[in-house]
Amino acid sequence: MIKKPDEIAEIIKKFDRKGYDVICAGKCITGSLLGESPLDWDMYTECPQEKVREMFPEGEVMGSRTTRLDYTSFVESQHVNEADHLEGVIADIITLEGPIEEQLGIYDFTCEATGEHANGSAVDPFGGRNDIRQKLLKPVGDFRNAVKKKPELIWKALRYVGLYGFDLNREIFETIQANSERAAIVDKETILYEFTTSITGDYAGKFLKMINGLNLLDAIVGPVGFSVNPREKKDFSKLCERIDETKKIPIRRLGLFYLVFDKNYEKVLNFLPQEEDTLDYLVEAKRLCPKLYFCRNDEMLKNFISRYGWDKFHFYDRLLKAQNIVFELDSQQHYARDQIMKLIIGEKQPIFLEDLVIDADDIIEAGITDDRDRAEYLLELLLTPVHKDRFNNDRDKLLKFAIGFNKSKIRRTFRNVNWVR
């Protein structure tokens, strides 16, 4: 018997008290047998929907045969290096029309077409549980005909590869191989969702190898691909081999993938409709990752953080570390950056304008300028001497710097230069 969440167990108890059996089936069984905690639960019963809705008046009516109970809550990530997610379960209570064995025939793959009665006994007319144990994806019906009607099944099948490491049986493999063009006609939002889900699985490397071998990469990156660049091919091969060693953070793994396509980075990145927030981080990754990589002292790091903010620093820092895992870059550089950051944080060194002991009003009150915009501009310039030496964050020193910057264009222009006597 699979372990069920408390909400699902309570639903089953309610039906049992009314004398009805409940059969959990579909991807909730698949996920549970693979060690996951599924979000979506399909629950079949002979109980008429009128009684179901009396028992669960809070349920949402989803057609004549289904009532949905939503026990989820949205957990928003506190940082870009975390993923938004739902916690809890969604239960679709479906009134059976005919035997459960017939109902299971609507599922696409045998691993989904299996169920479990309330007492724990299995319903498995297509041998799905054995296929789950073998991690072999087989279709319930004629997969060739199914793909003609629903080409998105190609991406759904490949999701089982990326998430769980399934192998495709011969029929599915050959059908996808012969229908690579149909895979590309699926709407781009669906392709992006399936790709992001698959690349964030435990077997992302296997998934990437398979989509490459099945000529599906163009559906993700567009016609430019990477076929003309040997170095990109080499990097893609390394990514396939070692991406599974990195943390399963969607935006980070997307960054690892897209950065392989150096020559056509922007075209590849913009081929699928990325979310605005994701695109904001990824579009600058090609430029800012190298910039951060070469920040070799505290001044450079503080300049980077003050300009781009903590979130982007943390994202590109972790993306660089993931690149180091995949491409075996110089780990000493990452170690040195970590040590510098520990010093900056430990000493509470000033980084942002709000960390300065003066503000624009102080500059105006000191008579340096009576122009508010000019005072704000001078205040921004004062970050440079403070980043060079945290002890410059002193009122008298900063006002003296402000006077010099206001009077001399040369001082303003060369404020970042470290003069050597």
What does this entry look like structurally?
The protein has 421 residues and is an alpha+beta fold. It has four domains: 6-134, Beta Polymerase, domain 2, CATH 3.30.460.10; 143-269, no CATH class; 288-339, no CATH class; 353-413. It is built from 24 helices and eleven strands. It has helices at residues 6-17, 27-33, 49-55, 100-104, 128-134, 143-149, 153-164, 170-178, 180-183, 188-199, 204-213, 218-221, 230-242, 250-258, 265-269, 276-282, 285-293, 298-327, 331-346, 360-365, 372-381, 383-388, 395-407, 409-413, and strands spanning 22-25, 40-45, 60-61, 66-70, 73-75, 85-87, 90-95, 115-116, 122-123, 136-137, 167-168. The strands form three sheets. The protein has a seven-stranded mixed sheet. A hairpin with a 5-residue loop joins strand 8 and strand 9. Helix 14 crosses helix 18, helix 17 (285-293) crosses helix 18 (298-327) and helix 18 (298-327) packs antiparallel against helix 19. It starts with 5 loop residues before the first helix and ends in an 8-residue tail after the last helix. The mean pLDDT is 93.
